[in-house]
Design brief:
homodimer; 468 residues; alpha+beta; BirA Bifunctional Protein, domain 2; Rossmann fold; Translation Initiation Factor IF3; five-stranded mixed beta sheet; 14 helices; 23 strands; 35% helix; globular; Anticodon-bd (chains A, B)
Chain lengths: 468, 468
């Protein structure tokens, strides 16, 4: 059989590109750095959106939509924010056939414009908390684009909230971090993220605390899968988000923001893909069970349709492939590439014995199964393989995370995995040294794995790694 | 009671702005022509999206995502298309801190970039039809913006398909027109749209046929609620969408495109709103039944919560208002403004008699109802009032549509309604004359209401009106 993909061990980035192309997930857009998300990729994103959207609403936030275009002057109001973003901006100078009086920025994120409207909508403590979320596209100019991971335009959700107290803002930012993001990533994406605090050097432009979720990819590099920020009163002061407290005082609100993006699709590919292609966690998969007719024969099409309907009736998301004029081998390779968790191969020979073949993409098994047992076999496989994928990712994370005691050792470990180091042995100076070698502090955690309230707490652990 | 809204009869456009502001549906963005869709407005849009998305998928189209940024040169490839759009374009000239070598256009619509990718993905007749849809934001510079109706940025879905034959493309464009759009607008939006064909003068830039759905607003003006286009082989030739036919010939594909947008929200407001605010059709409403505690009293909160849960268990989307420290009158005005189809007022006095008050926004009734009968009363009200809203809109359309026989009479009728005129009595010359008076040919239909295949068919009817 011809080699379909570059093996991961040979060239991981090349393998990644191959999977995206062959599984028809995405393509480069005509403007450098932009991306076309193809139907197979978009269907996965839609499932991510829909699950995450339910969790965000359960956390009390309401969806809204703010404009793509932001006056350039808005970004300048928060000094750190403008500094963080100005090299990445796309600027509109002409509209409606004329040069514009003030240049317009295509949103790189919406703290500024949402801050402006929060100021209008909030006047009393009764208006707080104000909990907003939007699903949108944003633009950050990329010189070295990589599909899903770094693209000039990407899709995301961005949450923005305003609170009466710092404690309330902190509790909300952390609630999103753990109850929405961490739970989604573990339960749906099957990725055992490490959750921690970014160092001052790594935190978001304008934030007082940035929390992050870091996933380990198949090559043991790290990917930042999502972030949640406390913005203190920085944006409230820049945009005048003021409320009268229960005691009648005028106070600045405390705001948060938090986001996850199509980058998670890149994480999914790199965390779970193998040399045969994508592997999609069953709970997330747009197609969980793919019914394939091997070749025509008496009653084969009818039996395949019956199996499809029975699976669908059991609440399973089903694909159907009856393209018998295409060689079966090619279609099977394609199903492997696309990573359907289970496929059910229906052919005349097995069917004569009352069987079909159940192929599990994650367990790697092919089992002749009586037609009457297909639904229960598939249901069990989907549950087991969701867990198996998580366990495999966790085992890799554990075997590739090494405890060391100083920055030089951490830089060495980062060539092949993640280093856990006492933060006191790194500090700002060690961090700069690591950065110079292409290694970053991914996050800080407490010894028990919980998220610290400041980087000055004693006995913190730093995770150092190379990252996407 | 203070007047909440400008009455429609006094100043319809002002009433429209008032409703949007007071029902907290949207706000003007900081860049001229842009729009902030607030949670109450976005929740309605989400319901539109979700219902429509199901219909589009049932029509076989798959969702994908194409880039926001399009090279300026793409738009020039189809002559009519560039001419149609160039005065409306927003142009990015700077990215990543530098002037760009080629200016980039922010998509006004995606025929061109999708055409480019269809050309890559299609090679054989087996790849056809290729049925794509995307939910996205687009930008068309507006000098006279009006919230939801004409904004520089708006949200929409745009479908793009490629077919092997003209017949297949035509059947698909018309299937979307009737089975997706018309059915959605009648069944969900409760708007009895007139469906017809645009004249050559009104059709989409680059199309060979444009089909439209026209709704009558509360002031008897027309609103184009959606369009579906046959693009012939124009884009296939401009972008080289070529396939080898079953007979082995190289042929250009036939493409279609079709779109509906947040403009439908404007149509919903103007078709159904009254002097007390918005009226949302029950099937569409994010909140169908709003349970309100009139004032505190023994057992009131517990009973209200029980009613809320019973409604929710019956599959009804429920809101809950227990803000008893805000005067009830103010909250009732707000509920009228927001247009919840039914509200259930729970207060100590009625409750002592075992009753609550069921207030129907559309029927305009207030009925004391035994607690045990609330679910069935609400269920019946929602079904009846969906129909009542449609019937009311249909009655208005019929009473404000007048048959006339020439263009001068049509122009006169258009001051207060729609004119139906034999197309043979108008023609290109009459159309130009009407246009000069601010009146347009909204669409052409056959005498039996069906959609003509060309404007040259005999005995066609033209609808002339003023329009948004």
């Amino acid at each position: 059989m011809a080699r379909v993909l570059t093996p991961r061990a040979e060239d991981f980035p090349r393998w990644y590109q191959d999977v995206i192309a062959k599984a028809e997930l995405a393509d480069n857009g005509p403007v450098r750095g932009t991306m076309v998300i193809r139907p197979a990729g978009y269907a996965i994103w839609e499932r991510m959106q829909s699950d995450m959207d339910g969790r965000i609403k359960a956390a009390g936030a309401q969806n809204a939509y703010f404009p793509l275009f932001i006056p350039e002057s808005y970004l300048r109001r928060e000094a750190e924010h403008v500094e963080g973003f100005s090299p990445e901006l796309a600027v509109v100078t002409h509209g409606g056939g004329k040069q514009l009086a003030e240049p317009i920025v295509v949103r790189p994120t919406s703290e500024t414009v949402i801050g402006e409207f929060m100021a209008k909508w909030v006047s009393s403590y009764r208006d707080l908390p104000l909990l907003l979320n939007q699903w949108a596209n944003v633009v950050r100019w990329e010189l070295r684009p990589r599909l899903f991971l770094r693209t000039s335009e990407f899709l995301w959700q961005e949450g923005h909230t305003a609170h009466a107290t710092e404690e309330d803002a902190r509790a909300y930012a952390r609630g999103i971090l753990h109850d929405v993001y961490e739970d989604f990533m573990r339960q749906m994406l099957a990725i055992p993220v490490v959750v921690g605090r970014k160092t001052v050097r790594e935190r978001f432009a304008g934030a007082t605390s940035t929390y992050t979720l870091e996933g380990m990819m198949g090559d043991a590099k790290a990917l930042q899968m999502g972030t949640s920020h406390e913005l203190g009163q920085n944006f409230a002061k820049a945009f005048d988000i003021v409320f009268s407290s229960a005691e009648g005082r005028q106070e600045h609100a405390w705001t948060t923001s938090w986001g996850t993006s199509t980058r998670m699709l890149g994480g999914l590919i790199m965390a779970h893909g193998d040399d045969n292609g994508l592997r999609v966690p069953p709970r997330l998969a747009p197609i969980q069970a793919h019914v394939m007719i091997v070749k025509d024969g008496e009653g084969v099409a009818a039996e395949a349709a019956k199996i499809r309907d029975a699976l669908r009736d059991a609440g399973i998301r089903v694909g159907f492939d009856d393209r018998v004029d295409t060689p079966f081998g090619r279609r099977a390779v394609d199903a492997e590439l696309k990573g359907y968790p289970v496929r059910i191969e229906v052919g005349p020979r097995d069917l004569a014995a009352g069987n079909v073949v159940v192929v599990r993409r994650i367990a790697g098994t092919k089992t002749p199964t009586p037609v009457t047992g297909v639904v229960s076999a598939v249901t069990a496989a989907l549950a087991e393989d969701q867990q198996a994928l998580y366990d495999e990712a966790l085992a890799r994370r554990e075997s590739h995370t090494v405890d060391v005691s100083n920055v030089d050792a951490a830089i060495e470990v980062a060539a092949t995995g993640w280093a856990r180091v006492p933060w006191s042995a790194i500090g700002a100076e060690g961090e700069a040294k690591a950065n110079a070698q292409g290694v970053t502090v991914r996050c800080l955690t407490r010894a028990d794995g919980s998220v610290p309230g400041s980087e000055d707490e004693p006995d913190l652990i730093a995770y150092l790694a190379r990252a996407y």
